[in-house]
Amino acid sequence: MANKSGGVPSKHSSPWSHYIDAAFGFRDHWYPAFFGDELEEADVSNAHGEEIANIRTEVILGERILFRRVNGTVYAVEDRCRHRGVTLAARPECYTADTITCWYHGFTYQMNDGKLTTVVTDPECPHIGKIGLHSYPTAERAGIVWVYVGDGTPHPLENDVQPELFENGITVAPFGWSKVVNSNWRIAAENAFDPGHAYIHRNSELVIENKVPTVLSNTNIKHNNGMEIVDVGDGPIGVKIHRASGTPVWEADAAEGVRIEARFRPGDPGVMEGMVPDISIWLPAGVAVDPFPAPGVLQFEWFVPVDEHRHRYMMTWAKRGLEGHAEKESFFTELRETWLQDVPEKFNHDDVFAREAMAEFYDEGDGWERERLYGPDAVITSWRRLVSQRGGTVQDSSRAWARRDLRS
Fold first, then answer.
1. 307 found inside a domain
2. Do 121 and 175 reside in the same domain of the chain?
3. Do 207 and 321 fall into the same domain?
4. Is residue 404 part of a domain?
5. Is 184 part of a structural domain of the chain?
6. Same domain (yes/no): 127, 210
7. Whole-model pTM?
8. Structural domain for 83, as ranges
9. CATH number for the domain that contains residue 262
10. Number of structural domains, the chain?
11. 8: pLDDT strictly greater than 60
């Protein structure tokens, strides 16, 4: 039977074989590339090409993409010269704000559409005006630069983000945190959405320092009981978990006479109240946690495929109901002074540890067959089935040409 990756039969026979095939991710989706404040306005090289211009590169779905901001707008092109395939970003030359010139033979391309405009070493070259770099559609919203990795006309960005991100009345921080993690994007997505993985956070520094009630697990979350599949019409596709509908596990026996207990429970003296977050996961690879890390604050996370072994882990935060410049700046200050450092370093670092610990098992290929899932994994298998049905075109390894990230 042909799968949805272009007619190539899957090697796997599971109900989510299309998902297993997507080691590099899914094409024809918008992905967050970086935060907008991380790319300044373009500058230009001198006549000898000695001044490096402002550019940024990211590897997404195995494709290395070069970004440049021109008059406020971010453009993106393939970071690979059409002549001999060298990486333009290795020695960037930009003699005008809206072009990039290959350092090897002087092939010069427009940033807005990738077209070859001149060749410094052969001004009469017949390729001029006839060939070019692949150009990627971009958008900049909610403080993030997004890039569409796919073919044809992109669908609306709103279809590929957490619905809360563009919600009316919400203030999203114009900055965030990111890191390349040595695990596949699917492992990261499942880790973030796993109701049983709360167990690893019972000893997280953030939980202890802020007295956050954190269960060992939530069980009995399944269809029609705390889990909702969202796939209606032309809009975001995902899975929602309403944790309050599940059965919280606050204590359990690890062995006879050995009782494991959550450090803090709702109602305990001095605990942070109002912290039973709902979690949702959305195609192609984003999560919303509401609330976290404090009441009234939302945390957004993304797991952007770099290649088959790595993903870029990104996160930012938002708050509803802020009015006026002063309230928003106060929220941003709170984030910069506290949560921007504490959440990644004192909480989500445990998730990174878990993802990298699972990487070898799943990178070997047969981990998907050898795993033995249990009750709370019902939400994970629902996600896998949904993505297998609705994820779209699997990124083929032959198109994932950039196996080395210059910034790693």
1. yes
2. no
3. yes
4. no
5. yes
6. no
7. 0.94
8. 35-138
9. 3.90.380.10
10. 2
11. no
The region of weakest confidence among 16-30, 45-59, 338-352 is: 45-59
Same domain, 120 and 66: yes
- Give the pLDDT confidence score for residue 223 in this predicted structure: 82
pLDDT tens-digit series, residues 108-140: 999 999 999 999 999 999 999 999 999 999 999
- pLDDT mean across residues, the chain: 92
The position carrying tokens 């305990």 is 268
Q: What is the 3-state secondary structure (H, E, C) of the chain?
A: CECCCCCCECCCCCCCHHHHHCCCCECCEEEEEEEHHHCCECCCCCCCCCCCCCCEEEEECCEEEEEEEECCEEEEEECCCCCCCCCHHHCCECCCCCEEECCCCCEEEECCCCEEEEECCCCCCCCCCCCECCEECEEEECCEEEEEECCCCCCCHHHHCCHHHHCCCEEECCCCEEEEECCCHHHHHHHHHCCCHHHHHCCCHHHHHHCCCCCCEEECCEECEEEEEECCCCCCCEEEECHHHCEEECEEEEECCEEEECCCCCCCCCCCCCCCCEEEEECCCEEEEECCCCCCEEEEEEEEECCCCCEEEEEEEEEECCCHHHHHHHHHHHHHHHHHHHHHHHHHHHHHHHHHHHHHHHHCCCHHHHCCCCHHHHHHHHHHHHHHHHCCCECCHHHCCCCCCCCC
Question: Residue for token digits 């504490």?
Answer: 342
Q: For residue 253, which amino acid is it?
A: D
How many angstroms separate the Cα of 248 from the Cα of each of 60, 202, 289, 295? 37, 14, 17, 19
CA atoms within 13 A on the CB side of 187: 28
Instruction: Decide if pLDDT at 226 tops 80.
Output: yes
Q: Please tell me whether residues 190 and 118 are part of one structural domain.
A: no
Residue 7, domain member (yes or no) = no
Burial 279-291, CB ≥16 within 10 A → b, else e: bbbbbbbbbbbbb
Which pLDDT belongs to residue 315? 98
Q: Which of 111, 120, 114, 116 is nearest to 130 (CA)?
A: 116
125/201 same-domain check: no
pLDDT of residue 143 exceeding 90, the answer is yes
Q: What pLDDT, on a 0 to 100 scale, did the predictor assign at position 404?
A: 58
